[in-house]
């Protein structure tokens, strides 16, 4: 009986052992196929990601070549400093606006005031923001900077030009006496006064008081009381901060053509064709003071010894360094593209 049982067990085991071997072989085969499939799947996914990234590059390149929808709402604000070449620059904008389909509006303030009341600041912000039929637009006028975000409105793109402070001061002194070639028949308020700038400084008269140079800093500083106190250090610091943080571009009169070129490259919606037009028209030298005498070295030394000149000149040098930095970045990165990659989640 026992012997028969052993025989049956060994018979059963002998029959099942080959089946287990077959199962193991099949499992190994299936596992190998699964691993190979996984490897191929990973390769395919990598390839798809490469293709997707290439498509992303292409899509972005195409997109950047077409005008963005937001361009129709662009607003430039040029709070132009007197006697810095602003008329020459604005003349280019007026001549291009029809061709490039934007509007140019002059902001005229009563009595040529450079400061704007709170009420009119608010109204101006509302007009500029909501006047859709005038967009895109370039607004320009002789007024100090003020922050649109203070009134809950989006900021426009501020631009400006500044000039060597003593050159601007002397030019303005003679402009008030002799006018310019832009409107030669217009009688200026100091017409008939033939006193030279040297004589004025020698006699220490108000017209050539260095405090009258305190203008470019206030235009960038804004509407705070300290902005308009000649020689105020806080005003200088604030003007520098605004120039860097709130202005799209600030150029210098001495490099006006470079200013136009950068604007054409950066804002073609407004300034497409501006450089060529500027070079081949009379806009580059549109407005020049009719009569102007260079001051003596002693006169210049006396003006340069004043705190106001030193601070205005420091601000000019600061703006010049920033402008040159912008030019270097453009020159160093010609053909630069900015692209989005590895966008997740995938659609």
UniProtKB/TrEMBL annotation:
An MF annotation (GO) of this entry: heparan sulfate 2-sulfotransferase activity
TM region(s), chain numbering: 20-39
GO cellular component, one term: Golgi membrane
Entry keywords, A to Z: Disulfide bond, Glycoprotein, Golgi apparatus, Membrane, Signal-anchor, Transferase, Transmembrane, Transmembrane helix
Topology relative to the membrane: Single-pass type II membrane protein
Record carries keyword Glycoprotein: yes
GO biological process: heparan sulfate proteoglycan biosynthetic process
Localization in the cell: Golgi apparatus membrane
InterPro entries per record: Heparan_SO4_2-O-STrfase (IPR007734), P-loop_NTPase (IPR027417), Sulfotransferase (IPR005331)
UniProt key word Transmembrane helix: yes
Family affiliation: Belongs to the sulfotransferase 3 family.
Complex and partners: Homotrimer.
Protein name per Swiss-Prot or TrEMBL: Heparin sulfate O-sulfotransferase
The species this protein was found in: Psylliodes chrysocephalus
Source taxonomy: Eukaryota, Metazoa, Ecdysozoa, Arthropoda, Hexapoda
């Amino acid at each position: 009986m026992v012997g028969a049982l052993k025989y049956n067990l060994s018979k059963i085991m002998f029959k099942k052992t080959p089946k287990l071997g077959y199962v193991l072989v099949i499992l190994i085969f299936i596992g190998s196929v699964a691993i190979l499939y996984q490897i191929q799947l990973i390769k395919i996914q990598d390839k798809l990601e490469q293709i997707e990234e290439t498509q992303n590059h292409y899509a972005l390149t195409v997109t950047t070549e077409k005008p963005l929808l937001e361009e129709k709402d662009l607003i430039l604000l040029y709070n132009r400093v007197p006697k810095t070449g602003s008329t020459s620059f604005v003349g280019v904008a007026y001549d291009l606006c029809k061709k490039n389909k934007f509007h140019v509006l002059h902001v005229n303030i009563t009595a040529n005031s450079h400061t704007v009341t709170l009420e009119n600041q608010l109204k101006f912000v509302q007009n500029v923001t909501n006047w859709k039929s005038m967009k895109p637009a370039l607004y320009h006028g002789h007024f100090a900077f003020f922050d649109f975000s203070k009134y809950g409105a989006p900021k426009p793109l501020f631009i400006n030009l500044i000039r060597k402070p003593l050159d601007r001061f002397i030019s303005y002194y003679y402009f008030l006496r002799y006018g310019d070639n832009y409107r030669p028949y217009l009688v200026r308020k100091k017409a008939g006064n033939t006193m030279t700038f040297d004589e004025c400084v020698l006699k220490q008269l108000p017209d050539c008081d260095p405090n009258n140079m305190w203008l470019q800093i206030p235009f960038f500083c804004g509407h705070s009381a300290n902005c308009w106190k000649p020689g105020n250090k806080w005003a200088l610091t604030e003007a520098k901060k605004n120039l860097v943080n709130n202005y799209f571009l600030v150029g210098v009169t001495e490099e006006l053509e470079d200013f136009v070129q950068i604007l054409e490259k950066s804002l073609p919606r407004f300034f497409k064709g501006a450089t060529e037009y500027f070079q081949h028209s009379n806009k580059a030298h549109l407005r020049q003071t009719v009569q102007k005498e260079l001051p003596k070295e002693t006169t210049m030394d006396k003006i340069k010894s004043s705190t106001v000149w030193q601070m205005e000149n420091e601000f000019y040098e600061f703006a010049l360094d920033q402008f040159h930095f912008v030019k270097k970045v453009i020159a160093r990165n010609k053909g630069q593209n900015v692209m989005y990659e590895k966008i997740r989640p995938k659609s």
